[in-house]
Amino acid sequence: MKAFVTGSTGLLGNNLVRLLVEQGHEVKVLVRSKDKAARIFGNLNVTPVQGDMENIGKWAGELSGCEVLFHAAAFFREYFQPGDHWKTLETINVKGTIQLLEEAEKYGIHKVIYTSSSGVIGMKPGGLPGDETTAPGPEASTNLYFKSKVLAEAEVAKFLTQHKLPVIIILPGAMVGPGDSGPTGIGQMIIDFTQKKLPGLLDGGFSLVDARDVAQAMLTAVEQGQSGERYLVGGNYADFETIAKTLEKVSGVPAPTLKIPYAVSLAMAFGVETFSKITKRPALITLDAARTIHVKGKIDSGKAKRELGASFRPLEESLFDSVEWYRKNGYLSPKFKATQKAEAH
How much is the pLDDT for 84? Predict the structure, then answer.
């Protein structure tokens, strides 16, 4: 298979690229910087294509000759950092996605695997986990990243009524795992935990999934997924106390015991956002993130298990591998070492 991957240097993208290469596929990777691509992929046998999602026309011709497009690129700053980034979110996540699908069809792509987000799924009555048929929750209208994904999916559905290009939609949960060079907000939380910078445990949690498991589901979807279908690949729900206790187990760093009430977390997030805007430094937590975490969203990945054979690593394994990756790649002190390896997946 000849594959083209957008978002290739991100947490999900680079794990997908490695899986594709490992299984013998030819891979082109969209990168904004070839120097960054060289750092991330090293001697991996991939073909870098320099460009970004705001100027698709400049590089779209590189899609020619490829069979499958894995679209994993997205702008998600609104979720993790303060400020109103709606224009960029709309340009990249909504309009850019449809333009890319049009170019993919023009240049002969056979199939597209599009990465959305489990954030577009609410929960069922009674707090039961949501599935692919569940409408978005209230947070999908206030969290602008989720909003952009809701709108993008609506545009993809419209595209499919007017075009023959097959598009399969993957909806990952909150991702962890090695290869998080960003790092993502969750990755930064893991780093901060190991450096004893977390003041306490927030009232909330989310469905956590290893990016490597999402990548495998995406690859399987090429053969087993159905066009127009959505597949939740959400892993398992974990609250903050569970995450912290697991991090303590794999890192040897004591978990904080202070439990932070929701109202206090909102006040903290407001203060952190304000400080971030003044100093131009990344925020440890934003109001959007605090609100989303408090929803305690649970999702049902049963369809992906049945139809794509999706399976999920234990949280302990994912967090151990994440911590070790951060250590080996200079995010933690070289002297720091994860203490306990989980059983192999």
Answer: 66
